[in-house]
Amino acid sequence: MEWRRATTGPGLRAVDRSRPSLILRSPYTSSASRATISLISRLRTDFSELNAHRFRCRLSPSPACESCGAAYETRAHFLLHCPAWDHLRPALQHASYSAGILGAVDVPSLLHHPKLLKTVAQFIANTGRFDGLHSLSLSLSPPYTSINLDLQKSHYST
Asked: In which domain of life is the source organism classified (predicted)?
């Protein structure tokens, strides 16, 4: 079935009408960290930790934005409209203009354009909205206390 006619993935197709983007395909081929790729992928597919999605999944008592009180904390609200992050948006606008995207910044451009990946990641980090989401440590029962998953420094590297 052709990607554009698929019945699944409406959140992603609203952002990216093409086949899955190469910038987010693999944490091994991208310069971004795996946590960053995961967060942006979740925003792209509309399956993020934002309250609108959490409320749909019955994981949150309200879809409201905890930062400003707006009725729905959607990805558009978080990236473009929440007044709590207004001071961070000029960087998004500037990066968008530098990437050749003229006019108002929109969600599809922010989450699809490869030249905006780092700026969007920095915006997300600066908001602190997802702090702690990817700071999970892998705990094992004694005698093991942790595990090193850094493949670049492992003895399996060539």
From this structure: Eukaryota
Query: How much is the pTM?
Result: 0.70
Digit-coded pLDDT (tens) for 16-52 = 666 555 445 544 455 677 788 888 889 988 899 999 9
- Across 32-46, 114-128, 132-146, the highest mean pLDDT is recorded for 114-128
Q: Is residue 152 part of a domain?
A: no
Q: Which two structure tokens, joined as six digits, stand for 79?
A: 């990236």
Domain that holds residue 108: 3-131
**3-state SS string over 83-96?**
HHHHHHHHHHHHHH
Contact by Cβ (8 Å): 94, 108: no
**Domain count for the chain:** 1
Residue 151 lies in a domain: no
Backbone angles phi, psi at 85, to 5 degrees: -115, 15
Residue 142 inside a domain? The answer is no
CA within 13 Å, CB half, 98: 12
Report yes or no on 7 lying in a domain: yes
